[in-house]
Amino acid sequence: LYEEAAREYENALPYAQNEYAKRSLMNNLAIVNLEQGNYDAAIEALEKLVNSPDSTYMDKVALHINNLAYARWKKDPDSDVEDVFLEALEIRREIKDKIGLMDSYNWLFEYYESRDPERAREMARKHLELARETGRVSTELTALQHLIAVSSSDEMTRYTRQYVKLNDSLNMAR
What we know:
The protein is mostly helical and 174 residues long. It has helices spanning 2-12, 19-35, 39-51, 58-75, 82-94, 98-113, 117-134, 137-150, 153-173. It is globular and about 55 Å long.
């Protein structure tokens, strides 16, 4: 499945109608490589995108930076990519990209979870706040799961209740 997707993205590149479409295909190809564990190929493609940013689409610039940090971290879990993740976060704050911010908070939570539980908790709280603000229930559930994982027993109980109530409501609505 991944091999077929990679082939399709590669075949589509010469037919991209504009720079935006070309960069989207390159990013998607990098993600396929990342999912396959081809970290070097993913990093190489993402570095090309990051090193020649298209400031017309700052949301995509932040996406590429965030994906590059993630790829480097997946390749080497001990690597220090905090500044790269934070660069993407800052761009997303500046352009008020709430969906992108939730993505950044999610990955920063995972990055900090074993390194700095307090920072992980902070990222999870911000993730939850934005999920509620934007009405993204599945994202809210993810943020609550993160908070449950890094909270004290009192907070864990509170977040678990919120999670169960929200999840039950979602299941009833289906």
